[in-house]
Amino acid sequence: MKQKKPNKKIKPSKLRQPWQVSDYDRRLNFQTILPYQFLLLCKILDTTPVDMIIDFLDNLSHASWKREGKDAAKQKLVEYILLCGYGKNYYSLDEIQQIFKELDAIGMIFPSNGETKLIDQYVAFREPYQDYWFNQWYYKARRQDISKG
Question: What is the pTM of this model?
Answer without folding.
Answer: 0.73
